Amino acid sequence: MSSRRSRISEEEIKELISNLQFLLPESRRRQAATRVSAAKLLKETCNYIESLHREVDDLSDRLTELLATMDITSAQAEIVRSLLRS
């Protein structure tokens, strides 16, 4: 294995930024002709990932509350937990 880092070409960076822009809901709503800077796109990406983390946490909390109120056996609860882990 070489100790040298593999370099990413400017064209590859542009392609990655374009792909990233397509993945972000806010960026998709913009007109295709509207270009944003890579820095702004990366900031939007970080904000979007943070919002996804908050949503996952919220859904997890809600599921925990729901499971706590359900009258299910421990075997059934374990099945639900195993499904959530996969």
UniProtKB/TrEMBL annotation:
Start and end residues of each BHLH domain: 1-52
Highest taxon listed in the record's lineage: Eukaryota
BP-aspect Gene Ontology terms: regulation of DNA-templated transcription; regulation of growth
A molecular-function term among this protein's GO annotations: protein dimerization activity
UniProtKB keywords: Growth regulation, Transcription, Transcription regulation
Listed Gene3D superfamilies: Helix-loop-helix DNA-binding domain
Pfam families documented for this protein: bHLH_ILI
Family recorded in the similarity comment: Belongs to the bHLH protein family.
Stated name of the protein: BHLH domain-containing protein
Organism this protein belongs to: Ensete ventricosum (Abyssinian banana)
